[in-house]
Amino acid sequence: MAKQPLTEGETVELKKSLAELKQGLISIAAILNKHQAETLWFGVRNDGAIAGIDVNEKTLRDLSQSIASHIEPKISPKISKVSIAGKRCIKIEFRGNDTPYFAYGRAFMRVADEDRQLSVKQLKGLITVQNRESLRWDNQPGKFSLADLWPRPKSSTS
After folding, report:
1. Of 110, 28, 30, nearest in space to 63 by CA
2. Whole-prediction pTM value?
3. Residue 10: CB partners within 8 Å, gap ≥ 6?
């Protein structure tokens, strides 16, 4: 049972029905790019009112396949049926640290309760942050051998 009322924000997205699936998947990518984890609900209106949704095993399987088909890199969300106020909803809990995430081939960032497409500059910044350790100059291979760095002392032969 979920805490009530549900509210939409930086880490929670609410969708009334599966007709909003595409926008929901975009929200998953946007939230992952900013927070690396959280929750998407289907069957809950933006104002937090419980609308309910018809849920069966095929619905959950189709939803899982849509996530696998349209979000890159791949994630393995926890998708579950939840009953709230006697109505069925779908709760998707997701996490991932492999930013940037893309939905439908585009990268998005969560800002308040909106999903904004990233500019090229923002996308470069996100990639740089993700790879900062591997991009450090002291992690790069050098062009010197150990002998260049620590030459052997010359032997004195007289």
Report:
1. 28
2. 0.80
3. 31, 34, 35, 110, 112, 113
Q: Taking residues 66-75, what's their average pLDDT?
A: 98
Per domain, the residue ranges of the chain are 12-136
Residue that is written with structure tokens 């492999």 in the block: 98
At CA 92, angle to CA 6 and CA 78, rounded to 5?
Answer: 135
Q: Which are the contacts of 40, defined by CB distance < 8 A and separation ≥ 6? A: 12, 13, 15, 24, 27, 28, 31, 91, 92, 94
How many Cβ atoms from other residues are within 10 Å of residue 15's Cβ?
24
CB 95, CB 37: distance < 8 Å:
yes
pLDDT in tens, 14-51: 999 999 999 999 999 999 999 999 999 999 999 999 99
DSSP state, 127? H
CATH number of 12-136: 3.30.950.30
pLDDT for position 132: 74
Structure tokens at 128: 């740089």
Whole-angstrom distance, CA of residue 108 vs CA of residue 28: 9
DSSP-assigned letter for residue 151: P
